[in-house]
Structures are given as structure tokens and as C-alpha cells.
């Protein structure tokens, strides 16, 4: 199950920290690899579920980025 999935009753209560974001990025990496593998094997319809999870994760990350005040985001040098 995606780390971005939070049940309705817990939404807004989950703490977003660097570890959670890193796990989500690693999950996205794995999802992309699975999608590419399925597509290269001609099984595009089998990768749709992974595309949906990846899309949800990306929307979640974008929402966090939009809600983070300027100057508080960590940058990678």
C-alpha cells in the first residue's frame, strides 16, 4: 500500500517528515521501474494500477510542496 494513502479519519493528522518523504520518493522510483518493465513486455494494461498509485503520490507531494511556506523547504546541494 502506498505511504501516501491515509484513511479519511486520519487525514490532516499525519505528520510529514523527511523520512516519510524519502520513502515516498523511493516508492515512486519503484513504481516507475515497474511501469517501464510492464510496458516493455507489452503489458501496458497491467501497469495501470501502478500509474494510478504514482499519480496519487505525485499529487500528494505537490500538495505538500504547495503548503510548505517559502524558506522552510530543504534543498539538495
TrEMBL record:
Pfam families per the UniProt record, alphabetical: SSXT
Species, as recorded: Falco tinnunculus
Entry protein name: SS18 like 2
Family in the record: Belongs to the SS18 family.
Location of the SS18 N-terminal domain: 13-69
